[in-house]
Protein backbone atom coordinates (compact mmCIF):
# COMPACT_ATOMS: atom_id res chain seq x y z
CA UNK A 1 0.00 0.00 0.00
CA UNK A 2 1.30 3.44 -0.93
CA UNK A 3 0.25 6.45 1.15
CA UNK A 4 0.15 9.95 -0.31
CA UNK A 5 -0.78 13.35 1.05
CA UNK A 6 -3.56 15.21 -0.72
CA UNK A 7 -3.52 19.01 -0.36
CA UNK A 8 -5.11 22.01 -2.02
CA UNK A 9 -2.93 23.62 -4.70
CA UNK A 10 -3.26 27.26 -5.73
CA UNK A 11 -4.05 27.94 -9.37
CA UNK A 12 -0.78 29.83 -9.74
CA UNK A 13 1.02 26.49 -9.45
CA UNK A 14 0.28 23.76 -11.95
CA UNK A 15 -0.02 20.45 -10.12
CA UNK A 16 1.37 17.61 -12.23
CA UNK A 17 -1.35 15.10 -12.94
CA UNK A 18 0.79 12.28 -11.55
CA UNK A 19 0.55 14.03 -8.17
CA UNK A 20 -3.23 14.39 -8.32
CA UNK A 21 -5.55 12.04 -6.43
CA UNK A 22 -7.75 11.47 -9.48
CA UNK A 23 -4.72 10.26 -11.47
CA UNK A 24 -3.70 7.88 -8.69
CA UNK A 25 -7.26 6.50 -8.55
CA UNK A 26 -7.13 6.04 -12.31
CA UNK A 27 -3.90 4.06 -11.96
CA UNK A 28 -5.66 1.71 -9.56
CA UNK A 29 -8.16 1.09 -12.37
CA UNK A 30 -5.76 0.79 -15.29
CA UNK A 31 -3.10 -1.35 -13.60
CA UNK A 32 -3.06 -4.25 -11.15
CA UNK A 33 -2.52 -8.02 -11.16
CA UNK A 34 -5.10 -10.74 -11.76
CA UNK A 35 -7.99 -10.82 -9.30
CA UNK A 36 -7.31 -13.33 -6.53
CA UNK A 37 -9.73 -16.30 -6.14
CA UNK A 38 -11.11 -15.34 -2.71
CA UNK A 39 -11.75 -11.81 -3.95
CA UNK A 40 -13.57 -13.13 -7.04
CA UNK A 41 -15.69 -15.33 -4.77
CA UNK A 42 -16.72 -12.31 -2.72
CA UNK A 43 -17.72 -10.51 -5.92
CA UNK A 44 -20.08 -13.41 -6.65
CA UNK A 45 -21.52 -13.09 -3.13
CA UNK A 46 -22.26 -9.41 -3.65
CA UNK A 47 -23.83 -9.97 -7.08
CA UNK A 48 -26.16 -12.49 -5.43
CA UNK A 49 -26.82 -10.08 -2.55
CA UNK A 50 -27.70 -7.21 -4.89
CA UNK A 51 -30.14 -9.34 -6.85
CA UNK A 52 -31.82 -10.56 -3.66
CA UNK A 53 -32.58 -7.10 -2.31
CA UNK A 54 -33.54 -5.82 -5.77
CA UNK A 55 -36.05 -8.60 -6.43
CA UNK A 56 -37.64 -8.05 -3.01
CA UNK A 57 -38.21 -4.39 -3.92
CA UNK A 58 -39.51 -4.76 -7.49
CA UNK A 59 -43.11 -3.87 -6.62
CA UNK A 60 -42.27 -0.78 -4.55
CA UNK A 61 -43.24 2.61 -5.96
CA UNK A 62 -39.77 4.18 -6.46
CA UNK A 63 -38.57 1.01 -8.20
CA UNK A 64 -41.62 0.90 -10.46
CA UNK A 65 -41.12 4.55 -11.37
CA UNK A 66 -37.45 4.02 -12.19
CA UNK A 67 -38.26 0.93 -14.23
CA UNK A 68 -40.91 2.78 -16.27
CA UNK A 69 -38.47 5.62 -16.93
CA UNK A 70 -35.92 3.10 -18.14
CA UNK A 71 -38.42 1.39 -20.43
CA UNK A 72 -38.90 4.69 -22.23
CA UNK A 73 -35.27 4.38 -23.39
CA UNK A 74 -35.16 1.05 -25.22
CA UNK A 75 -32.06 -0.12 -27.05
CA UNK A 76 -31.86 -3.39 -28.95
CA UNK A 77 -28.29 -4.15 -27.86
CA UNK A 78 -28.55 -2.55 -24.46
CA UNK A 79 -28.67 -3.78 -20.87
CA UNK A 80 -31.22 -5.78 -18.91
CA UNK A 81 -33.59 -4.63 -16.17
CA UNK A 82 -34.22 -6.66 -12.99
CA UNK A 83 -37.57 -8.41 -13.10
CA UNK A 84 -38.04 -8.23 -16.88
CA UNK A 85 -37.20 -10.84 -19.54
CA UNK A 86 -33.58 -10.60 -20.68
CA UNK A 87 -34.79 -9.84 -24.21
CA UNK A 88 -36.03 -6.46 -22.95
CA UNK A 89 -33.07 -4.09 -23.26
CA UNK A 90 -32.59 -0.40 -22.46
CA UNK A 91 -29.70 2.04 -22.68
CA UNK A 92 -27.02 1.20 -20.12
CA UNK A 93 -27.40 4.38 -18.09
CA UNK A 94 -31.15 3.75 -17.73
CA UNK A 95 -30.62 0.12 -16.75
CA UNK A 96 -28.21 1.41 -14.11
CA UNK A 97 -30.91 3.84 -12.97
CA UNK A 98 -33.64 1.20 -12.67
CA UNK A 99 -31.48 -1.55 -11.18
CA UNK A 100 -29.57 0.79 -8.86
CA UNK A 101 -32.85 2.07 -7.42
CA UNK A 102 -34.09 -1.49 -6.89
CA UNK A 103 -30.86 -2.47 -5.11
CA UNK A 104 -30.94 0.56 -2.80
CA UNK A 105 -34.65 0.75 -2.00
CA UNK A 106 -34.71 -1.64 0.99
CA UNK A 107 -31.38 -0.44 2.45
CA UNK A 108 -30.27 -4.04 2.83
CA UNK A 109 -27.10 -4.57 0.80
CA UNK A 110 -23.45 -4.13 1.78
CA UNK A 111 -21.74 -1.38 3.75
CA UNK A 112 -18.36 0.05 4.67
CA UNK A 113 -17.86 2.47 7.57
CA UNK A 114 -14.72 4.49 8.29
CA UNK A 115 -14.06 8.26 8.10
CA UNK A 116 -17.19 8.34 5.97
CA UNK A 117 -19.63 5.57 5.10
CA UNK A 118 -20.65 3.77 1.96
CA UNK A 119 -22.64 1.06 0.23
CA UNK A 120 -19.98 -0.16 -2.21
CA UNK A 121 -22.32 -2.60 -3.98
CA UNK A 122 -24.12 0.45 -5.39
CA UNK A 123 -21.39 0.27 -8.05
CA UNK A 124 -22.52 -3.12 -9.34
CA UNK A 125 -25.65 -2.03 -11.30
CA UNK A 126 -23.90 0.54 -13.54
CA UNK A 127 -20.93 -1.76 -14.11
CA UNK A 128 -23.15 -4.68 -15.02
CA UNK A 129 -25.19 -2.48 -17.38
CA UNK A 130 -22.09 -1.22 -19.19
CA UNK A 131 -20.59 -4.72 -19.36
CA UNK A 132 -23.80 -6.07 -20.90
CA UNK A 133 -24.16 -3.27 -23.45
CA UNK A 134 -20.49 -3.42 -24.43
CA UNK A 135 -20.39 -7.21 -24.70
CA UNK A 136 -17.82 -7.82 -21.97
CA UNK A 137 -17.03 -11.04 -20.13
CA UNK A 138 -17.51 -12.20 -16.57
CA UNK A 139 -13.81 -11.70 -15.87
CA UNK A 140 -14.05 -8.12 -17.13
CA UNK A 141 -16.99 -7.46 -14.83
CA UNK A 142 -15.19 -8.96 -11.84
CA UNK A 143 -12.17 -6.75 -12.48
CA UNK A 144 -14.39 -3.69 -12.70
CA UNK A 145 -16.26 -4.47 -9.49
CA UNK A 146 -13.03 -5.17 -7.59
CA UNK A 147 -11.63 -1.83 -8.79
CA UNK A 148 -14.75 0.11 -7.80
CA UNK A 149 -14.58 -1.36 -4.30
CA UNK A 150 -10.87 -0.55 -4.03
CA UNK A 151 -11.35 3.10 -4.94
CA UNK A 152 -14.50 3.49 -2.85
CA UNK A 153 -13.00 1.98 0.31
CA UNK A 154 -9.83 4.07 -0.03
CA UNK A 155 -11.83 7.31 -0.31
CA UNK A 156 -14.14 6.39 2.58
CA UNK A 157 -11.16 5.60 4.83
CA UNK A 158 -9.45 8.91 4.11
CA UNK A 159 -12.02 11.65 3.46
CA UNK A 160 -15.03 12.47 5.64
CA UNK A 161 -17.97 13.90 3.71
CA UNK A 162 -20.79 13.80 6.26
CA UNK A 163 -19.09 16.26 8.64
CA UNK A 164 -19.54 18.85 5.89
CA UNK A 165 -23.10 17.72 5.07
CA UNK A 166 -22.00 16.32 1.72
CA UNK A 167 -23.81 13.15 0.71
CA UNK A 168 -21.80 9.96 0.36
CA UNK A 169 -22.41 9.56 -3.38
CA UNK A 170 -19.51 12.00 -3.80
CA UNK A 171 -17.24 8.99 -3.20
CA UNK A 172 -19.48 6.58 -5.09
CA UNK A 173 -19.38 8.39 -8.44
CA UNK A 174 -15.59 8.26 -8.89
CA UNK A 175 -15.55 4.63 -7.74
CA UNK A 176 -18.13 3.76 -10.39
CA UNK A 177 -16.20 5.64 -13.08
CA UNK A 178 -12.99 3.84 -12.09
CA UNK A 179 -14.75 0.48 -12.15
CA UNK A 180 -16.23 1.10 -15.59
CA UNK A 181 -12.81 2.16 -16.85
CA UNK A 182 -11.25 -1.02 -15.50
CA UNK A 183 -13.84 -3.38 -16.99
CA UNK A 184 -13.49 -1.68 -20.38
CA UNK A 185 -9.69 -1.74 -20.19
CA UNK A 186 -9.37 2.01 -20.75
CA UNK A 187 -6.11 3.94 -20.51
CA UNK A 188 -5.18 5.88 -17.39
CA UNK A 189 -5.72 9.24 -19.11
CA UNK A 190 -9.30 8.40 -20.09
CA UNK A 191 -10.19 7.05 -16.65
CA UNK A 192 -8.58 10.11 -15.03
CA UNK A 193 -10.83 12.44 -17.00
CA UNK A 194 -13.90 10.32 -16.28
CA UNK A 195 -13.20 10.22 -12.53
CA UNK A 196 -12.89 14.00 -12.40
CA UNK A 197 -16.16 14.48 -14.26
CA UNK A 198 -17.92 12.03 -11.96
CA UNK A 199 -16.63 13.77 -8.82
CA UNK A 200 -17.66 17.16 -10.17
CA UNK A 201 -21.29 16.19 -10.81
CA UNK A 202 -21.80 13.95 -7.75
CA UNK A 203 -21.41 16.59 -5.03
CA UNK A 204 -24.81 16.83 -3.34
CA UNK A 205 -26.05 17.79 0.11
CA UNK A 206 -26.97 15.43 2.96
CA UNK A 207 -30.46 16.87 3.21
CA UNK A 208 -31.50 13.66 1.47
CA UNK A 209 -30.83 11.87 4.79
CA UNK A 210 -32.11 14.52 7.20
CA UNK A 211 -35.54 15.14 8.68
CA UNK A 212 -38.25 13.56 6.54
CA UNK A 213 -36.25 11.13 4.40
CA UNK A 214 -37.82 10.78 0.97
CA UNK A 215 -37.73 8.21 -1.81
CA UNK A 216 -34.70 10.04 -3.23
CA UNK A 217 -32.57 7.98 -0.82
CA UNK A 218 -33.12 5.01 -3.15
CA UNK A 219 -32.47 7.04 -6.29
CA UNK A 220 -29.29 8.83 -5.18
CA UNK A 221 -26.78 5.98 -5.84
CA UNK A 222 -28.50 5.17 -9.14
CA UNK A 223 -28.19 8.83 -10.09
CA UNK A 224 -24.45 8.64 -9.41
CA UNK A 225 -24.21 5.51 -11.56
CA UNK A 226 -26.02 7.18 -14.44
CA UNK A 227 -23.72 10.20 -14.18
CA UNK A 228 -20.62 7.97 -14.01
CA UNK A 229 -21.60 6.13 -17.19
CA UNK A 230 -22.09 9.41 -19.00
CA UNK A 231 -18.78 10.74 -17.67
CA UNK A 232 -16.90 7.70 -18.97
CA UNK A 233 -18.63 7.99 -22.34
CA UNK A 234 -17.57 11.64 -22.67
CA UNK A 235 -14.02 10.86 -21.62
CA UNK A 236 -13.82 8.04 -24.17
CA UNK A 237 -14.75 10.61 -26.83
CA UNK A 238 -11.82 12.78 -25.80
CA UNK A 239 -13.61 15.31 -23.59
CA UNK A 240 -11.74 16.74 -20.61
CA UNK A 241 -12.75 17.60 -17.06
CA UNK A 242 -12.47 20.24 -14.30
CA UNK A 243 -8.96 19.70 -12.96
CA UNK A 244 -7.51 19.12 -10.46
CA UNK A 245 -10.89 18.07 -9.12
CA UNK A 246 -9.79 17.34 -5.56
CA UNK A 247 -6.85 19.71 -5.08
CA UNK A 248 -8.06 22.71 -7.07
CA UNK A 249 -8.26 26.13 -5.44
CA UNK A 250 -12.04 26.27 -6.01
CA UNK A 251 -12.69 22.54 -6.06
CA UNK A 252 -13.94 19.80 -3.75
CA UNK A 253 -11.53 19.89 -0.80
CA UNK A 254 -11.14 23.67 -0.70
CA UNK A 255 -14.84 24.55 -1.06
CA UNK A 256 -16.88 21.60 0.16
CA UNK A 257 -14.69 19.74 2.66
CA UNK A 258 -11.94 20.77 5.12
CA UNK A 259 -10.88 23.90 3.27
CA UNK A 260 -7.73 25.31 1.65
CA UNK A 261 -5.44 24.22 4.48
CA UNK A 262 -6.73 20.64 4.52
CA UNK A 263 -4.50 17.61 4.24
CA UNK A 264 -5.64 14.03 3.72
CA UNK A 265 -3.60 10.85 3.73
CA UNK A 266 -4.92 8.25 1.32
CA UNK A 267 -3.63 4.71 0.89
CA UNK A 268 -3.86 2.98 -2.49
CA UNK A 269 -2.33 -0.25 -3.80
CA UNK A 270 0.65 -0.02 -6.13
CA UNK A 271 0.47 -1.19 -9.73
CA UNK A 272 1.48 -4.75 -8.84
CA UNK A 273 -0.37 -5.08 -5.52
CA UNK A 274 -3.58 -7.15 -5.33
CA UNK A 275 -6.89 -5.33 -4.95
CA UNK A 276 -8.55 -6.80 -1.84
CA UNK A 277 -10.63 -3.97 -0.35
CA UNK A 278 -13.91 -5.77 -1.02
CA UNK A 279 -12.98 -8.23 1.74
CA UNK A 280 -13.06 -5.38 4.28
CA UNK A 281 -16.74 -4.66 3.55
CA UNK A 282 -19.77 -6.41 5.03
CA UNK A 283 -23.39 -6.97 4.13
CA UNK A 284 -26.62 -6.57 6.06
CA UNK A 285 -28.79 -9.31 7.45
CA UNK A 286 -31.56 -6.88 8.38
CA UNK A 287 -33.23 -4.17 6.29
CA UNK A 288 -32.09 -1.09 8.20
CA UNK A 289 -29.21 1.39 8.45
CA UNK A 290 -25.98 -0.53 9.12
CA UNK A 291 -25.37 1.04 12.54
CA UNK A 292 -28.68 -0.51 13.60
CA UNK A 293 -27.66 -4.06 12.63
CA UNK A 294 -25.94 -4.84 15.92
CA UNK A 295 -28.70 -3.07 17.86
CA UNK A 296 -31.32 -5.32 16.24
CA UNK A 297 -29.33 -8.42 17.18
CA UNK A 298 -28.81 -7.03 20.69
CA UNK A 299 -32.58 -6.48 21.04
CA UNK A 300 -33.16 -10.10 20.04
CA UNK A 301 -30.64 -11.24 22.66
CA UNK A 302 -32.19 -9.10 25.40
CA UNK A 303 -35.81 -9.93 24.70
CA UNK A 304 -35.99 -13.15 26.82
CA UNK A 305 -34.70 -11.17 29.83
CA UNK A 306 -37.69 -8.79 29.79
CA UNK A 307 -40.96 -10.69 30.33
CA UNK A 308 -43.11 -7.53 30.45
CA UNK A 309 -42.08 -4.62 28.23
CA UNK A 310 -44.69 -2.38 29.84
CA UNK A 311 -42.49 -2.45 32.97
CA UNK A 312 -39.63 -0.75 31.10
CA UNK A 313 -39.01 2.70 32.51
CA UNK A 314 -36.25 3.88 30.16
CA UNK A 315 -33.71 2.58 27.63
CA UNK A 316 -30.35 4.22 27.10
CA UNK A 317 -28.11 3.24 24.17
CA UNK A 318 -24.47 4.34 24.47
CA UNK A 319 -22.88 4.28 21.05
CA UNK A 320 -20.60 6.08 18.60
CA UNK A 321 -20.81 9.71 17.53
CA UNK A 322 -22.00 8.73 14.08
CA UNK A 323 -24.75 6.39 15.26
CA UNK A 324 -25.94 8.91 17.86
CA UNK A 325 -26.03 11.85 15.45
CA UNK A 326 -27.28 10.13 12.28
CA UNK A 327 -29.87 7.60 13.49
CA UNK A 328 -30.12 8.47 17.20
CA UNK A 329 -31.49 11.28 19.34
CA UNK A 330 -28.36 13.31 18.62
CA UNK A 331 -29.80 14.05 15.17
CA UNK A 332 -32.39 16.34 16.73
CA UNK A 333 -34.96 15.02 14.23
CA UNK A 334 -38.46 14.74 15.81
CA UNK A 335 -39.46 12.66 12.76
CA UNK A 336 -37.47 9.77 14.23
CA UNK A 337 -40.23 9.45 16.86
CA UNK A 338 -43.17 9.97 14.50
CA UNK A 339 -45.40 6.91 13.88
CA UNK A 340 -46.51 8.43 10.56
CA UNK A 341 -42.94 8.92 9.31
CA UNK A 342 -41.81 7.45 6.00
CA UNK A 343 -40.19 4.04 5.84
CA UNK A 344 -36.94 5.77 4.84
CA UNK A 345 -37.11 7.84 8.03
CA UNK A 346 -37.95 4.88 10.27
CA UNK A 347 -35.00 2.83 8.99
CA UNK A 348 -32.83 5.73 10.13
CA UNK A 349 -34.32 5.77 13.65
CA UNK A 350 -32.36 3.63 16.10
CA UNK A 351 -35.09 4.21 18.66
CA UNK A 352 -37.88 2.84 16.46
CA UNK A 353 -35.77 -0.07 15.28
CA UNK A 354 -34.71 -1.12 18.77
CA UNK A 355 -38.29 -0.90 20.08
CA UNK A 356 -39.77 -3.06 17.30
CA UNK A 357 -36.92 -5.59 17.43
CA UNK A 358 -37.36 -5.88 21.18
CA UNK A 359 -41.11 -6.42 20.86
CA UNK A 360 -41.15 -8.75 17.84
CA UNK A 361 -37.94 -10.76 18.14
CA UNK A 362 -37.65 -10.59 14.35
CA UNK A 363 -36.95 -8.04 11.66
CA UNK A 364 -38.76 -8.09 8.33
CA UNK A 365 -38.07 -5.79 5.40
CA UNK A 366 -41.80 -5.13 4.89
CA UNK A 367 -43.74 -6.01 8.05
CA UNK A 368 -41.43 -4.12 10.40
CA UNK A 369 -42.15 -0.82 8.63
CA UNK A 370 -45.86 -0.84 7.86
CA UNK A 371 -47.90 2.13 9.16
CA UNK A 372 -49.96 -0.31 11.21
CA UNK A 373 -46.81 -1.69 12.84
CA UNK A 374 -45.34 1.74 13.55
CA UNK A 375 -48.52 3.12 15.10
CA UNK A 376 -49.23 0.43 17.71
CA UNK A 377 -49.81 2.28 21.02
CA UNK A 378 -47.56 -0.04 23.02
CA UNK A 379 -44.78 0.38 20.45
CA UNK A 380 -45.06 4.16 20.54
CA UNK A 381 -44.89 4.11 24.35
CA UNK A 382 -41.75 1.97 24.34
CA UNK A 383 -40.18 3.86 21.42
CA UNK A 384 -40.41 7.19 23.24
CA UNK A 385 -38.63 5.78 26.29
CA UNK A 386 -35.46 5.24 24.27
CA UNK A 387 -32.55 7.65 23.90
CA UNK A 388 -29.03 7.40 22.51
CA UNK A 389 -25.90 9.02 23.90
CA UNK A 390 -22.41 9.28 22.49
CA UNK A 391 -19.76 7.28 24.32
CA UNK A 392 -16.22 8.34 23.28
CA UNK A 393 -14.97 4.76 23.62
CA UNK A 394 -17.49 3.57 21.02
CA UNK A 395 -16.56 6.47 18.75
CA UNK A 396 -12.90 5.48 19.02
CA UNK A 397 -13.70 1.89 18.15
CA UNK A 398 -15.92 2.96 15.24
CA UNK A 399 -12.93 4.76 13.68
CA UNK A 400 -10.24 2.24 14.63
CA UNK A 401 -8.12 1.55 11.52
CA UNK A 402 -7.64 -2.07 12.59
CA UNK A 403 -10.58 -4.14 11.24
CA UNK A 404 -10.11 -6.54 14.16
CA UNK A 405 -10.99 -3.77 16.63
CA UNK A 406 -13.63 -1.79 14.74
CA UNK A 407 -17.05 -1.81 16.39
CA UNK A 408 -20.42 -0.58 15.14
CA UNK A 409 -22.65 -1.53 18.04
CA UNK A 410 -23.25 -0.12 21.48
CA UNK A 411 -24.14 -0.72 25.09
CA UNK A 412 -27.80 -0.87 26.17
CA UNK A 413 -29.05 -0.09 29.68
CA UNK A 414 -32.71 -0.94 30.31
CA UNK A 415 -34.06 0.43 33.57
CA UNK A 416 -37.15 -1.35 34.84
CA UNK A 417 -39.81 -0.03 37.17
CA UNK A 418 -38.70 -1.00 40.64
CA UNK A 419 -35.06 -0.15 39.88
CA UNK A 420 -33.70 -3.29 38.20
CA UNK A 421 -31.11 -2.59 35.53
CA UNK A 422 -30.63 -4.91 32.54
CA UNK A 423 -27.41 -4.32 30.62
CA UNK A 424 -25.70 -5.79 27.54
CA UNK A 425 -23.44 -4.73 24.71
CA UNK A 426 -22.54 -5.98 21.25
CA UNK A 427 -19.55 -4.91 19.17
CA UNK A 428 -20.68 -5.99 15.73
CA UNK A 429 -23.75 -7.56 14.15
CA UNK A 430 -23.98 -11.34 14.17
CA UNK A 431 -23.59 -11.42 10.33
CA UNK A 432 -20.40 -9.31 10.43
CA UNK A 433 -17.14 -11.16 9.58
CA UNK A 434 -16.28 -11.03 13.31
CA UNK A 435 -19.84 -11.73 14.44
CA UNK A 436 -21.52 -14.76 15.93
CA UNK A 437 -22.78 -15.99 12.54
CA UNK A 438 -20.52 -14.40 9.90
CA UNK A 439 -21.93 -14.45 6.39
CA UNK A 440 -20.23 -16.84 3.98
CA UNK A 441 -21.67 -18.11 0.68
CA UNK A 442 -24.45 -20.03 2.42
CA UNK A 443 -25.46 -16.86 4.28
CA UNK A 444 -25.84 -14.99 1.01
CA UNK A 445 -27.76 -17.86 -0.55
CA UNK A 446 -30.07 -18.05 2.46
CA UNK A 447 -30.74 -14.32 2.28
CA UNK A 448 -31.41 -14.62 -1.47
CA UNK A 449 -33.91 -17.45 -0.97
CA UNK A 450 -35.65 -15.62 1.88
CA UNK A 451 -36.06 -12.37 -0.06
CA UNK A 452 -37.02 -13.86 -3.43
CA UNK A 453 -39.37 -16.59 -2.19
CA UNK A 454 -42.81 -16.12 -3.70
CA UNK A 455 -41.48 -13.54 -6.17
CA UNK A 456 -39.04 -15.33 -8.49
CA UNK A 457 -39.98 -18.76 -9.76
CA UNK A 458 -37.78 -21.49 -8.21
CA UNK A 459 -36.36 -22.58 -11.58
CA UNK A 460 -35.46 -19.02 -12.51
CA UNK A 461 -33.85 -18.41 -9.12
CA UNK A 462 -31.75 -21.56 -9.52
CA UNK A 463 -30.75 -20.59 -13.06
CA UNK A 464 -29.64 -17.17 -11.83
CA UNK A 465 -27.59 -18.59 -8.95
CA UNK A 466 -25.90 -21.04 -11.32
CA UNK A 467 -24.95 -18.12 -13.58
CA UNK A 468 -23.51 -16.23 -10.62
CA UNK A 469 -21.43 -19.24 -9.58
CA UNK A 470 -20.02 -19.41 -13.11
CA UNK A 471 -19.39 -15.65 -13.31
CA UNK A 472 -15.65 -15.89 -13.91
CA UNK A 473 -16.25 -18.24 -16.86
CA UNK A 474 -19.02 -16.27 -18.57
CA UNK A 475 -17.87 -15.24 -22.02
CA UNK A 476 -18.32 -11.94 -23.80
CA UNK A 477 -22.00 -11.44 -24.52
CA UNK A 478 -23.20 -13.88 -21.84
CA UNK A 479 -23.75 -11.40 -18.99
CA UNK A 480 -27.47 -11.19 -19.71
CA UNK A 481 -27.59 -14.39 -17.65
CA UNK A 482 -27.07 -12.18 -14.58
CA UNK A 483 -30.53 -10.71 -15.01
CA UNK A 484 -33.43 -12.32 -13.16
CA UNK A 485 -37.00 -12.41 -14.44
CA UNK A 486 -40.12 -12.55 -12.27
CA UNK A 487 -43.76 -13.08 -13.26
CA UNK A 488 -45.43 -9.86 -14.38
CA UNK A 489 -47.92 -10.04 -11.51
CA UNK A 490 -44.99 -9.76 -9.05
CA UNK A 491 -43.92 -6.40 -10.46
CA UNK A 492 -46.81 -4.63 -8.79
CA UNK A 493 -48.95 -2.11 -10.62
CA UNK A 494 -47.60 -1.61 -14.13
CA UNK A 495 -45.77 1.63 -13.55
CA UNK A 496 -46.30 4.68 -11.36
CA UNK A 497 -49.77 6.00 -10.62
CA UNK A 498 -49.01 9.21 -12.52
CA UNK A 499 -47.44 9.72 -15.90
CA UNK A 500 -44.29 11.72 -16.44
CA UNK A 501 -42.42 13.36 -19.27
CA UNK A 502 -41.01 10.09 -20.54
CA UNK A 503 -44.46 8.55 -20.79
CA UNK A 504 -45.88 11.39 -22.88
CA UNK A 505 -46.87 10.32 -26.37
CA UNK A 506 -45.81 12.24 -29.47
CA UNK A 507 -48.62 14.52 -30.69
CA UNK A 508 -50.05 13.84 -34.13
Automatic annotation (TrEMBL):
It holds the Pfam family MmgE_PrpD_N. Residues 286-468 form the MmgE/PrpD C-terminal domain. GO terms for molecular function: lyase activity. It comes from the Bacteria. Residues 34-263 form the MmgE/PrpD N-terminal domain. Belongs to the PrpD family. This is MmgE/PrpD family protein.
Amino acid sequence: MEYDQVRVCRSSRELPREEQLAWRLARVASAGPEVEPDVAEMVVNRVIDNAAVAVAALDRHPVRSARQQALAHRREAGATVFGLPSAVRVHAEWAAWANGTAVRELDMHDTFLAADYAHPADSIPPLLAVAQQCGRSGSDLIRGIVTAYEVHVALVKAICLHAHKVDHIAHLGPAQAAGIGALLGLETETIYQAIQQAVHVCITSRQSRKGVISSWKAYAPAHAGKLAIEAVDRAMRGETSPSPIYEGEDSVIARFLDGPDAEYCIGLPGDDEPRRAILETYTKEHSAEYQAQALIDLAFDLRPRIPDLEQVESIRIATSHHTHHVIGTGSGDPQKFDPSATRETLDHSAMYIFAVALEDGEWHHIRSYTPERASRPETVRLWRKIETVEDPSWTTRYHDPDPARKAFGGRVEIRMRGGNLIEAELDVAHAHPRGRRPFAREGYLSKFRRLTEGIAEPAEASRFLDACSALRDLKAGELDRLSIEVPEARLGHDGPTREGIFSCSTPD
